[in-house]
Amino acid sequence: MSLPAVALLGGIVGLDATSFPQVMISRPLVAATLTGWILGDPASGVALGALHEIFSLAVLPVGASRYPETGTASVAATAAMLSSTAAGTWSTLLVALVFGLLWERVGGATVVIYRRSIEKLLLTTSGDALPSRKLELRHALTLGLDFARASLVTIGGVLLGSSLVVHLAPRADLPAGLIRGAIAVAAAAVLGGTLGVFGGWSERHKAFVLGAVAGCALLALR
Fold first, then answer.
1. Looking at residue 84, what DSSP letter applies?
2. How many Å apart are CA 50 and CA 201, to the nearest integer?
3. What share of the chain is helix, strand, coil (3-state, %, to 5)?
4. Measured on CA atoms in the order 95, 96, 98, 103, is the torsion positive or negative?
5. Lowest CB count within 10 Å: 29, 105, 108, 173, which one?
6. pLDDT number for residue 121
7. Angle, helix 70-82 to helix 132-168, in steps of 10 degrees
8. pTM here?
C-alpha cells in the first residue's frame, strides 16, 4: 500500500470539505473511488464509496454545525479494505463499511477541535483586527493545519481499519446473500429517511421507486 499517497489524498479531501476548494472530491463516492484508483482497484472503491454516499446523504454540512467527516473516513476505509488479502469479498466490504461509518465520527470530532484551535489563533488579546498581512499568513497556516489534521486522521484510520479488517472479516464470513441483503435493507432504510431532504415522497416517489427497482435488479444479477 502507498501510505504516503493515501495520506496526501486524505489531506486534500479533508481540505475540500470546508477549507478549500470545495469541489466535491470530499464526497464519499469520489474520495473512495480516487483511493481505489491510487491503490489499483477503482471498482472496489466505487462499491464502498457508493454505500458510504448513501449513508451520508442525510448529512448536511451547513454553517458551523457538527457533522461526521465522511471524506477522510471513506479514504481510510477503502485503503483498509484493499490492504486485506481477502479484498473483494462481501465480508471484507461489510467490515470496511461499518468501520468507515464509525471512523467518520472520529474525523468529525477532530474538526471541532480544529475549529476551536483556529478561533484562538485568529483572535487577538486586545480584540483589535489583525493587519491584513498577518491575517493572510494565519489563514495559510490554518489551511496547513487542516491538511495535517485530515492526513493524520486518514493515516490513523488506515492503520486501525487494516487491523480490524484482517481480524474481523474472517469472523464475519457469512453467506454472501445474507450480507448483501443486510446491506441492501440498511441502505434502503437510510434512503427512505432522506426523502424529506429532497422534497419528500410526493415529489420524489417516482425516482425512489425506480431506484428501488434498479437496486433489486442489481442484487438479483449478483
1. S
2. 22
3. 75, 0, 25
4. positive
5. 105
6. 72
7. 40
8. 0.82
Tell me the backbone φ, ψ of residue 157, rounded to 5 degrees.
-65, -40
pLDDT tens-digit map of 118-144? 877 766 555 566 677 777 787 888 899
**Omega within 30 of 0 (cis) for the link into 170:** no
**Nearest alpha-carbon partner for 195 in 212, 183, 213:** 212
Q: Which residues are CB-neighbours of 154 under 8 A, at least 6 positions away? A: 6, 7, 9, 10, 11, 13, 14, 72, 75, 76, 79
Q: Where are the domains of the chain?
A: 3-173, 174-222
Q: Write out the three cell numbers for 90.
A: 462481501
What do you get for the CA distance between the two ends of the chain, in Å?
Answer: 29
